[in-house]
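subagent[fold] <- orchestrator: predict structure for attached chain, return tokens only, no commentary.
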Amino acid sequence: MIKKMISTEIKVGLLVLAGVILLFYMSSRVEKFGFFRDKGYELSVVFDNATGLDKRTPVYIAGVQVGNIGNISLEGYKAKATLFIKKGVNIPVDSAIAIKSQGLLGDKYLEVIPGTGKQFLAKGDTLRDVASSPDFDQLFARIDTAAKNFDDTMGGLKGLIGESEKVNIKKSIENIQVASTDFRDLLRTNKEGVNRIVSNSATISDKLGTIVKDVEDGKGTLGLLVKDESLYNDAKDVVASLKSISSDIEQGEGTLGKLAKDDTLYLETEKALKKVQKGAEGIQEMTPVTILGTIFGFLR
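subagent[fold] -> orchestrator:
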């Protein structure tokens, strides 16, 4: 009986021990090979500082979780993180990644900013564009430094500003208040005029919009000039005709061409002018004799 009880207890103990061993084994297998998780692929990214990140840090795109960090290791003096991305999530090669926080004191997470490229990262690729994100410790240190500098500046201003400067500043503020009051009274007094100006401006704007629309629709003179292709073709033909006439003149063709290019016309014209000039000189020489003859005839 005792032997039977001992054998039963041993059997139960061995069964429990086997279950514990199996549990540890499956846990190690799940952690190492990623059993019972979604299928996907791995990417890597190198950070200057990975403070706040761990193996369970999620990865988001546009606020939707698409993966998590699988491992973080030291590479040189930087932190290399291996990302596990879900299957079906394509990340362009020109994408960026940044470390962000969920609120001021919230947990850290990774945000992928997708690029616009047509090529996508494949298994084992590296996200190289790491966007810098503010470190709150550094941010608070900068704020503290800025506050101290501001305090020192105000202390320096207190030493520079005397009683006379304070009086001048007070008068300047009073003048600004008076000018503001006068401007407000001016607007109140001329409210109808201001409203009329605004109304006229709106009317002019509407008319300009109508004119622009008519031009775009090809209406009116401007619209025809802009939209009517026949006017363009006519102008093109006129320009072509002028070019043809100019070419004929340069080649000495036609009446204008001969006048411009034929030297004989110039020579004949010069000869004719010389003959006219000689004739005029002969008439001038004959004029005194004719006048004297007329006078003598009258005296007789």
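orchestrator: received. Logging for downstream: Strands lie at 40-47, 58-61, 64-75, 78-86, 96-101, 108-113, 126-127, 129-130. Helices lie at 2-33, 136-160, 163-189, 191-217, 220-227, 229-250, 254-261, 263-299.
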